[in-house]
Amino acid sequence: MSTFKSQFINIMVERGFYNQCTNESGFDDYLYECEKSGKPAVGYLGSDPTGDSLHVGHIVPLMMLRWFQKCGHKPLTLVGGATARIGDPSGKDKLRPFLSEETLAENIKGLKKSFSKFLKFGNGCNDALMVDNWDWFKDINYLAFLRDIGTYYSVNRMLTMDSVKSRLEREQPMSFLEFNYMLLQGYDFCELYKNYGCRCQIAGSDQWGNITSGTELGRRKYDVELFGFTSPIITDSNGKKMGKSEGNAVWINEEKLSSYDYYQYFRNIGDAEVGKCLRIYTDLPLDEIKKLEALKDKEINEAKKILAFEATKICRGEEEAQNAQTTATNVFEQGMAGGELPSLTLPSLENISVIDAFLQIGFVNSKGEARRLIKQAGLKLNDAVITDENYKLSSQDVINGQIKISQGKKKHGLIKVK
RNA sequence: GGAGGGGUGGCAGAGCGGUCAAAUGCAACGGACUGUAAAUCCGUCGACUUAGGUCUACGAAAGUUCAAAUCUUUCCCCCUCCA
């Protein structure tokens, strides 16, 4: 059942991306007109370069933009070179530390890379474009800004915004600097409208206040209706935000996280999340997803493999996904050592204790931790539990040129000797 | 500028001269049960260690004391109220 006229919104609703829209029917009409006439709508997603890679928590809006592009529209990815220098107060209690110019430049490069995995960039009419709000903020004059933009904002209203209100209620400090963040983001939206005809912004629901800041500014300053469209926060069954594995973020860029680990993150998703994740993190058609999520008990593992493969494919490419899958199958189903596992190459096995090996491959942070894990029967050498914490590696442990070491059930690695 | 409150482990938050490597909760990790799931239960959770200890840590520095997260002084930072 299609309740909307535009292809894009229908997809968003069907796949669980739709949370809130500033004007549902207005946006639908607008997109429908664009889709019908073949003239792409322009929409943007903003990210502040506070890190050098996006992570799984950012994928939801990225996938939304990906569908947006698939529906024939033009995505803009805005990196907040300027806004990162301010800090978005949404959902935070503390002012974030300032970043150096070099870090910002590095981070922007990293974000471009992350974006390009999900979107097609180029010069075609619906190819994605990267823009940086530093371009229009760096030379802005304070008085001019106050007069042009400040006149449209009421402090009374700003104080009621969630990002501000929650800080005040929790008696956490909020600097004037951060207080201005929403003005900048509002200005961004209008600049993109002015320069690219961009009329919609896609973002996570925590950005609602910043989005309406832009749509209101657009209405007052340019007398145009801008649209905001947000995704729900995707949580697991415990209500926790997705995107952390072993306490670490699941990064999009490969130099921050191997494809094997990326694959494993999705492979280990909870049963209850499989359907939701298939809809959000893969491009698979809905009828196929329906079949997969209907699987029960052990069989749902098949769905998880497909999820992991498809999700990895989008982000890391088909070959990497295939390799990750092969490794995972070898390790978990055949009990063998696979090629994509983290590995450590040693010049020789002389005087290397098992503890050193685990320390050097980075599975443990200290020798004490390794000893503790041995006491708890948590470390394995070639699939046999290590009982002697003073055990030294020897050539007898080498099988097919490598030694397999494991921590717990899921963390496996290889030691190779030159 | 004035008055008061506060800065403790990844986070939250006790402790307020020795028994404190620091209660408790969350997170994390290992084990059991399973399906590389969830829930549950048990265990661990500063570093080094010849396992007896040693070292580093309660915003920073100096001091008092046999002994300091705890007392004193100075400095830095934050919050609240007043001007």
Describe this structure in words.
By secondary structure, this protein is an alpha/beta fold. The chain folds into three domains: 7-231, Rossmann fold (3-Layer(aba) Sandwich); 258-333, Tyrosyl-Transfer RNA Synthetase (Orthogonal Bundle); 343-417, RNA-binding S4 domain (Structural Genomics Hypothetical 15.5 Kd Protein In mrcA-pckA Intergenic Region, Chain A, Roll). The chain is built from 18 helices and 13 strands. Strands 1-6-5-2-3-4 form a six-stranded mixed sheet, with helices on both faces. A five-stranded mixed sheet has the order 9-13-12-10-11. α10 packs across α11, α12 packs across α16 and α13 runs parallel beside α15 (300-316). The longest helix has 18 residues, at 101-118. The mean pLDDT is 89. It binds one RNA strand of 83 nucleotides through residues 171-173, 237-238, 246-247, 264, 267-274, 297-301, 304, 328, 331-333, 366-369, 372-373, 375-379, 407-410.
Q: Which properties best describe this structure?
A:
5-stranded mixed beta sheet; 6-stranded mixed beta sheet; Structural Genomics Hypothetical 15.5 Kd Protein In mrcA-pckA Intergenic Region, Chain A; RNA-binding; single chain; Rossmann fold; Tyrosyl-Transfer RNA Synthetase; 418 residues; 45% helix; alpha/beta
